[in-house]
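Lecture 7 notes: from sequence to structure.
We start with the chain below.
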Amino acid sequence: MSIGHAQQFHFGAGRAPAGAVRVTTGSMYNAAAGYGFEEGAVLKETSRGIGADSPFFFSVRLPEGNYHVKTEIASATVRVECRRLMVRDTVTGKVSFTVHVRDTLIRNAAGEVTGKVRLKPRERNYRHWDNLLTIELNGRAPAIRSLEITPERKAITVFLAGNSTVVDQDREPWAAWGQMIPSFFQSGKVAIANYAESGEALNSFIRARRLEKIISRMQAGDYLFIEFGHNDQKQKGEGVGPFTTYKKDLRFFIREARSKGGIPVLVTSMHRRSFDDAGRIIINTLGDYPEAVRQTAREENVALIDLNAMSKILYEAWGEAASLKAFVHYPANTFPGQPDALRDNTHFSTYGAYEIAKCIVKGIRDARLPLARYLMNDVPPFDPAHPDDADAWYWPSSPLKPALKPDGN
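Predicted structure tokens for the same chain:
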């Protein structure tokens, strides 16, 4: 179920359009109104609407579904939910994007509740399970003038199933490719629905009913991108392995997606940052799990994005020293509440996650997926052997600072 009409908001002084809700600096979120700013930022009215000298959040209560969002902003980078990137860099003017909103309930075709996703304790504070669309305005003195939210029923939904290397990481400085990829697609054409979660393997994703939730929302022509391996390889037991249980579970994901007319896409796991003694060659720490994905793609006639192969090229192009900027390596006290140095060779910085997302875009194009026609017109080809300059990367930090390292490694 979703709203059947547009919700419009006008921020600050000036004439509000007919039917628009006027929002003031004192419009803090409350359940009765179903919209409002979050506490924390010092808001002010300006000629550009309502703004602040620091990041701020505006939330609207919505039923789950896809929504088309049009907004007029100034000096802002736009993210939604758990730091999901929609509009990169600092933009002034009218922009639009398509966003997926979800809850934990599993419903059948008649809309009856048949179950619930089993969340981890850490997920209970995530913004993407809270029945709200939360928009983060960030950047250099960000401001917002108008906001319009309309149900979007024609866009293709791209569901993401994966682990901490895919999930919408909710805290700085961690990031993953799944939260960067929405910014590469045309508004109104594609909605990214990232259901990945830290620490998950194929079988635990199934047990938590995450796949069931995805399939309950899937429509014919939607996609399911499947990327696991880092946590699957740690599982032990008789018969457990890449060419046995892992391939069996991959085939189950494929069958479930196809049962709804969906298009499964297999993605091999990216490498960990593990160089040889000379600091030049990446060592494979994932065993046969990437090869098992490649085999399954051939056997099941499924499109493959070989992120494992591309990440090796990418990391070796950076080299051992420069690659530190792509991963979560920061001295102690770089962020509030971070007394110890961070040395994480599995999870990415925002820069690294964006470069991995570019590899995914390359994989979409190389696999000749019809989805490629909906990429933004200004997305250039990407060569992992020639990564972007890390020093040119701009990401204004969200005020949600680190608490826990993501599950899995």
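Points to note: The longest strand covers residues 84-101. The longest helix spans residues 242-259.
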